């Protein structure tokens, strides 16, 4: 006879893995509860046997918490070195400089109406190659007027190009791009 024939179905039943895990979880939680209970009872027994150590420990913990809360941070914030809005004046001459670009070959976008830059999408060929829409940095312009946008005063400036192929053209640019 083979081993398979000698085995009865009752002998082949193995405990399910989930049952074993539940037993282990119950015993683990019981162990944690017992450990925490033992630590707490030994700490509370200090109140009866050695009250100076008991109250000293509590006072030390309170002092540490108060110390951490009072020295948690400084009230001064580091200064950000982002682009600054200059106090532009109408009629003055400035140059275009892209505040958000490090590439010297980057261009500054000029649009026909203030706020159009917020909806700027140059996926069309005409938007990328249109005349006088992308001006090189350093182009001299003079400020004609200002427009408020998004709750910020003088966010856009109407400029007249003072040099290059687009000399005399008027368009709107972000005020932070004029320096």
Characterization of the model:
It contains five helices and six strands, in the order H-H-H-H-E-E-H-E-E-E-E. By secondary structure, it is an alpha+beta fold. It folds into two domains: 68 residues; 85 residues, SH3 type barrels. Helix 3 crosses helix 4.
Secondary-structure class: alpha+beta
- Whole-number mean pLDDT: 79
Q: Largest sheet at a glance?
A: 4 strands, antiparallel
- What general form does the structure show? elongated
SS elements, strand count: 6
CA-atom Rg in angstroms = 38 Å
- Determine the N-to-C terminus distance: 99 Å
Taken in chain order, the helices and strands follow as HHHHEEHEEEE
Helix content: 25-40%
Instruction: Name the strands of the widest sheet in spatial order.
Output: 1-4-5-6
What's the level 1 CATH class of the largest domain?
A: Mainly Beta
Pick out the low-confidence regions. Answer: none
In the CATH classification, which architecture of the largest domain applies?
Roll
β-strand amount? 15-25%
As for the number of domains, it is 2
What is CATH's topology name of the largest domain? SH3 type barrels
Q: How many helices does DSSP assign? A: 5
């Amino acid at each position: 006879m083979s081993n398979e024939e000698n085995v009865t179905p009752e002998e082949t039943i193995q405990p399910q893995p989930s049952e074993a895990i539940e037993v282990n979880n119950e015993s683990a939680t019981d162990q944690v509860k017992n450990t925490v209970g033992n630590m707490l009872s030994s700490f509370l027994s200090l109140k009866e046997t050695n009250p100076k150590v008991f109250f000293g420990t509590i006072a030390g913990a309170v002092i540490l918490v108060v110390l951490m809360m009072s020295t948690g941070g400084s009230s001064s914030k580091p200064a950000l070195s982002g682009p600054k809005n200059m106090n532009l004046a109408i009629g003055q001459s400035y140059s275009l400089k892209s505040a958000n670009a490090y590439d010297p070959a980057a261009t500054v976008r000029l649009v026909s109406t203030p706020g159009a830059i917020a909806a700027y999408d140059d996926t069309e060929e005409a938007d990328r190659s249109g005349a006088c829409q992308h001006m090189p940095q350093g182009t001299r312009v003079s400020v004609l007027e200002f427009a408020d946008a998004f709750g910020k005063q003088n966010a856009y400036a109407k400029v007249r190009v003072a040099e290059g192929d687009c000399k005399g053209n008027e368009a709107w640019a972000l005020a932070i791009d004029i320096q």
